[in-house]
């Protein structure tokens, strides 16, 4: 195994549903409420909750009508009229259940679309209005972010998946409630004899099902502990590759002139190799999770029948009950294994949320830096004859001094050339005069509102 893969395989703190739910609550809380702009989303969320509550009652109706149909088949001399009437009831229950799930999914889709649009507007507005597109490059040790991927792909995928998981979790909860009650009602007390002692275990199906679910859940959680970290690394590597490709496209002519093809080729190839190492590790963990999930899917019905074996042999369970128990068993297990069954989607959401949180944290740092700097770099109206720069001090993001106590008068209407060796701060002075340097202090006067600055690289607005 390569050193890169060894680093990737280091364990991280387990991702818990409670911690993730708290993060999502803080993230989505501003987008819900009873005010005009949030009322629609609040009503959609309430509709999803109501729909899943109705699903629980619909599921009870489905189970009851199915049990009646199975019981009717065992009655000697049953007529076709009675059979088709029971079958029609069963069909109506199934269609009703399906209709509710369809409406529920539709509301979840609308909610996801609305959230994605609102979050996109907020991110874009904050990024542009605060000049975060420029300031993020000036922050010390700022993590590399790709806003184009974040605002377009990540945000839409995050909200679509979150609303889908929210709806799915509520459905799982409603099915769990029906399943736990159904198992308890069908759980004929188990009588055990040991030597001269006799034991009766009421509700043993419920207890056994919960124990099975907890054991399975702990195993899959251990296998998936590092999946979030690996997928986060994979997203970062994808963003890094996109950034390098955009860099090559932007500076194509300069790279060709300066014969930088070999260097850029090696740099891009190294990033692709690192990305492959991450993908290999992700594939291995996903394979293990798929194996455990498939084994569980095939084993559940067998295990449910195995638990009922003593009462089946003693003929204490009807045929309809035997058919119903594995269904309830699966619904109860699904509640405890919900995270494991949706591990890929949950970790995808966690990774996307982390990227948006990092992006917001970067913008917050930039906004705070701007706010703190306003008191150090002072602008005044001055006069119409010259731009006065007094005691200007410039620093790099790491605090290294570039220029100290620089004072200069630049006459208006005349060409003034600042000439000095490369790296001493000529461009930094221009940034400070334009109000773009968060690491400057001093006084600047004489700037007018209609003054324009010409950047070193050409810029044309894109439609």
TrEMBL record:
Superkingdom, taxonomy of origin: Bacteria
Subcellular location: Cell membrane
ABC transmembrane type-1 domain mapped to chain residues: 53-323
GO annotation, cellular component aspect: plasma membrane
Gene3D superfamilies: ABC transporter type 1, transmembrane domain (1.20.1560.10), P-loop containing nucleotide triphosphate hydrolases (3.40.50.300)
Transmembrane segments: 43-62, 69-88, 94-119, 165-186, 192-215
Membrane topology summary: Multi-pass membrane protein
One GO MF term: ABC-type transporter activity
Pfam families: ABC_membrane_2 (PF06472)
UniProt keyword list: ATP-binding, Membrane, Nucleotide-binding, Transmembrane, Transmembrane helix, Transport
InterPro entries: ABC1_TM_dom, ABC1_TM_sf, ABC_transporter_sub-D, P-loop_NTPase
Protein name as annotated: Inner membrane ABC transporter ATP-binding protein YddA
Record lineage: Bacteria, Pseudomonadati, Pseudomonadota, Gammaproteobacteria, Candidatus Berkiellales
